[in-house]
Amino acid sequence: MDNIQPTQSRRSFLRKCALVAGGSAAVSMSRLGSTAPAQAAAVIGGKGLAKLPKAKGPRLVIVGAGTSGLTIARHAKRAHPRFDVVVVDKQYMYCSCFTSNLWYDNLINLEFRADYSFLDAARNHNFIYFSATATGLDRSAHKLYTNMGEIPYDFLVVAPGIDYDYARIGVKEPEVEYALRTSYPGGFTMPTEHVAIRDKIHSFEGGVFVQTVPAGNYRCLPAPYERACMIASWFKQKGIKGKVLVLDANPEITIKAKGFHAAFDELYKDIIEYKPSVEIKAVDPDKRLIKTEFTSYTFDDASIYPGVRAATLIEQMGLLDPESLQKEARIDPYYYNVPGDEHVYVTGDARPMPYSKSANTANSEGAYVAKVLAARAQGKKIPWESPETLCYSMVNGSPTQAIAVDAHYAYDKKTRSFQFANVKLFEQRDHAMAEAYLEWAKGLYRDMFA
Ligand SMILES: Cc1cc2nc3c(=O)[nH]c(=O)nc-3n(C[C@H](O)[C@H](O)[C@H](O)COP(=O)(O)OP(=O)(O)OC[C@H]3O[C@@H](n4cnc5c(N)ncnc54)[C@H](O)[C@@H]3O)c2cc1C
Q: Which pLDDT tens digit goes with each residue over 373-393?
């Protein structure tokens, strides 16, 4: 991250953003191109075949209708119209995680994030949407198991996102984990958490509101800091005598540090208190107490973002890399397939590469993976393309002002890991960037649904 430089003019960046989307952890060299034997992990799902129309071409099944899955569905169908694409998701309604922080400060309404239908996406992009929960996989028989029956595949993409890992903040008892999930949700997985958090913020009467930031490659690096700004902006506008206490497991703000520090100091001096290197060892939800090795913090309300791991489905399907701290999948880091199996792929935030777990990354990566699938279905090869991480953060609600980062990735032979490349930082907050933020989000929704 040291090599981050503002190397692009603001105007050219904003122009580019209108076009985009529509719209360091190491990956060991020894794992590149490894050919581990195919394992078959089967978990019992529904009985018999799922009720689906007969495949009219090579069947591409995608688990997860999030940013990654929907992008791949659309672009794979475009790149290879013969694909018969089936998208499986367990959610009944779409509601984006990205832009949820803006909703807390009433900068957008709920429709902005949720007014999109899986059915429209399926019709517009000519794929089948199948409402079901994936439960397991038999790779030797090329079968996905779901609670609604089995789905045979020619190619399978698994894009189920993330789950929380409460053990990373010392929480081992299911009772404590349940209390935290319910009363102090992290707000980085299910939309229902966002509703609970918004309610907390809007009914807050004063005192200390804690926002924690986990260690590791957690989902959306800037989002907890952006959320702190949006909560503080709400308190400021409503005259609420509240403090936002940001407890960060990292020694410094993990991205766009200059821009966030400037916002904390200049806009919310008496509201946001930032504490780095706070390694949480335990949480007592009844006493509203967060403990570290040396001290403890009390709070009136909180959003506790624990560590993250790949969605548990990755483990259930037998795709887990046993060496992965965040329980991510073991895949070829360039082509995303399970080593030795060109029929099964893992994408989006469940990937093990140290890319930012963010929507633009999943979207640009998805467009590339779609090309990989189309090429392989036709016996061709294509060169690797880096995903692009374009990530805005709203730091002021009135007037709206944002900061941003735009980066690609390159494999560094010296460190034997993927690193940021061509990084452009835009840390001087301004209104034009806030407008570009909303346009970027609309572009992404268009790419997935329209
Ligand atoms: C608060 C917040 C703010 C954010 N801000 C930004 C931002 O400003 N910019 C940015 O770029 N990104 C941001 N992000 C991150 C971004 O939303 C995610 O990184 C991105 O959506 C990941 O896409 P995905 O497809 O991998 O996962 P998801 O979008 O989570 O999709 C996974 C899908 O898989 C489905 N699924 C899981 N298990 C199963 C199963 N067993 N069977 C069937 N379906 C299943 C889920 O229902 C879900 O629909 C933010 C996220 C949050 C939470």
A: 999 999 999 999 999 999 999
